[in-house]
Amino acid sequence: MKKKTKYRIKNWSEYNNALKQRGSLTIWVDKNIIAAWYNNKRTGQKGRPVVYSNLAIQCCLTLKMIYHLPLRATQGFVCSLLQLVQLPLTAPDYSLLSIRQKILPLELSGRGNYKNGMHLVVDSTGLKLYGEGEWKVRKHGADKRRTWLKLHLGINEASHDIEAVVLTSNDVHDSETLPDMLKQITDEIDQVTGDGAYDTHSSYQATIHSGADPCFPPRRNAIRNKPCDKAWQARNHAVSQVKYHGLKSWKKKNNYHRRSLAETAMFRFKQLLGDKVMARTFERQFKEISIKCFAINKINQLGMPAY
């Protein structure tokens, strides 16, 4: 009987300190944010000047996501925090946070922990928008008002950081969002790995156009197509390899099993920041998810386990 492989953490002391640092306020509010709290740039446009910088708004919204606070509670939390550290600063109003969240410019801070090129693993998951909870659904059935959004993530296999994020309705197929995710990445990509949902011509075409090698397992009833372009040629090669050598051998040869890191990242996302979306308009919902992805990357930079 084959024994089950046991994975042990080799850097437990460093990872244990990183877990404790996740709750530290100094991680989310540093000296650079305090120095750039107010907006000193003059736009020269008519209307009321912008008082708070984008960095200050992002800091407040990050605290809101990390500690699962409503907008009004976020204002009170930031006010008390500034009073405790005795800083001559004021907190943005909760209505201002809601307005600025819609137009806040934000970029994901990936580390680029790779040598020859990034191995990008992609997948999607559902986020609850509104509706009854799991207990009510199990007891009385699903309600018509039960609505979900679909979160598509591109994960750097080496650093576990989120490199690309797309938010769509729940009726959008995974393969439709892959070109948008690849456009968000400016670094060199060596390989893109996804499950069978990405086994489409458009996914192969977008991956090859970005300079990467596609790694999508063919479907069970997959057949070869006319090799009129590089996308069909790559897919035909995958179909032939699976047919003659088996799916298990193909997955091992193409390092496909690293795709499970995408599911691990989504579990980390929901475990730390929840599986619900609080905003009600799509622009604010996307910014909310982007801030959460930024926070996940910040948490990863504190320390990750080494097995």
Account of the protein in words:
The chain has 307 residues and is an alpha/beta fold. It has two domains: 12-103, no CATH class; 118-280, Nucleotidyltransferase, domain 5 (2-Layer Sandwich). 46% of the residues lie in helices and 13% in strands. The protein has 13 helices and five strands. It has helices at residues 12-21, 25-28, 31-35, 54-66, 71-84, 94-103, 134-140, 174-183, 201-209, 230-245, 247-253, 260-273, 282-302; strands at residues 118-130, 147-156, 162-169, 189-193, 213-215. A five-stranded mixed sheet has the order 3-2-1-4-5, sandwiched between helices. Strand 2 (147-156) and strand 3 form a beta hairpin.
Quick synopsis:
With 307 residues, the chain is of the alpha/beta class.
Structural Rg: 22 Å
Strand content: 5-15%
The number of domains: 2
- Count every helix, treating DSSP H or I runs of 4 or more residues as helices: 13
> Briefly, what CATH class of the largest domain?
Alpha Beta
Return the average pLDDT rounded to an integer.
89
Assembly form of the protein: single chain
**Percent range for helical residues?**
40-55%
Low-confidence stretches: none
- Assign the structural class, choosing from mainly alpha, mainly beta, alpha/beta, alpha+beta, or little secondary structure: alpha/beta
Number of DSSP strand runs: 5
The ordered string of helix (H) and strand (E) elements is: HHHHHHEHEEHEHEHHHH
